[in-house]
Amino acid sequence: MKRIVLFLATNVAVMLVLTATLTLFGVNRFLTANGLDIQTLAIFSLIVGFTGSTISLLMSKPMAKWSTGARVIDPNAPGSAEEQWLLDTVHQLADRAGIGRPEVAIYEGEPNAFATGAFKNDALVAVSTGLLRNMTEEEVSAVLGHEVAHIANGDMVTLTLIQGVVNTFVVFFARVVGYFVDQVVLKNERSGGIGYFATVIVCELVFGVLASIIVAWFSRQREFRADAGSAHLLGSREPMVRALARLGGLEPGNLPKSFEASGIAGGKGIGALFASHPPIEDRIRALMARG
User: Cα 121 to the chain's mean position, in Å?
Assistant: First the structure.
């Protein structure tokens, strides 16, 4: 979750800086005396939208290391038997998935793990100390398989493309609405008045919230696919089911009867629209249904 929020925050920050820079240098000539130049606005929106998400993707690996304090394990000199096991496990899973062997890192924190990187053959898989302390080796292997599946599926790249598309629509329609309010509602004689800029800011915030629902929906779908990918890489769904049960505080031995009574937060109410991950019980149910 922290990694995804960081990706989105970086994306928005880059978009804002890029928009301000292009405006400062006069690269906003879609506002003309004859009205909006739709073609120029579309090009402007594409540049702002995809540049923000692409830079976020390229920065994802160093930013993830920095934000979590992850320490990359030296593959030539692991510091312990546990680190050696982590390296061997991730490398074996990567080989099975047909991707380059990613960097492997450990960071201090509650049970969790993540994978990130702009390229399948130059990615990062990191696990928390809390995960290593609270899970069996089989369960940790399943989580690692889940993260390797994210890399093999190209999830970060796909997320970047989707984010770029929704960014483009946000930038484009915010300015169309801004122009309409400025010229039709407020009837300003010259383009780009205060009404235009105020409306654009409000619309970017509103449309950005709506766009985040689309991105979050995709993120939830990729979690289901990564769970299935872990089951495929390990040759069994059971390790991933047990790992999810452990993460959700369920009793592994009672699955699947305890799903509905698990009381796991998430997936309920309006907050579910913005959740990057589906509820644990839904993920387990989906795995069990695969047979």
Answer: 19
Distance CA 143, CA 61 (A): 19
Task: Answer whether 244's CB lies under 8 Å from 280's CB.
Answer: yes
Q: In this predicted structure, what is the pLDDT of residue 42?
A: 85
* The Cα angle at residue 101 between residues 99 and 67, in degrees rounded to 5: 110
C-alpha distances in angstroms, 27 versus 20, 23, 24, 30, 40?
A: 10, 6, 8, 8, 10
Model confidence pLDDT, tens digit, residues 238-279: 999 999 999 887 544 433 333 232 222 334 556 677 788 888
Burial label for 84, CB within 10 Å (0-12, 13-18, 19+), is middle
Token match 């990191």: residue?
Answer: 126
User: What gap in Å lies between CA 260 and CA 123, rounded to an integer?
Assistant: 36
Continuous H helices in the chain: 2-24, 38-68, 81-97, 129-134, 137-152, 155-180, 194-234, 238-248, 280-289
Name residue, tokens 């130059």.
122
Rounded Cα gap, residues 75 and 105, in angstroms: 10
3-state secondary structure of 126: strand
Q: What is the pLDDT of residues 54-83, one digit of tens each?
A: 888 888 889 888 888 899 999 999 999 999
Q: Which helix (H) or strand (E) holds 31?
A: strand 31-32
Query: Given pLDDT bands bounded at 50, 70 and 90, which one contains residue 151?
Result: very high
Report angle CA 43, 48, 53 to the nearest 5 degrees.
Answer: 125
**Looking at 103, 147, 223, 281, which residue is catalytic?**
147
Q: How many Å apart are CA 291 and CA 286, to the nearest integer? A: 9
pLDDT-based confidence at residue 23 (cuts at 50, 70, 90): low
Picking from 238, 261, 236, 235, the residue whose alpha carbon sits closest to that of residue 248 is 261
Specify the pTM. Answer: 0.81
Let me know if 147 is a catalytic residue.
yes
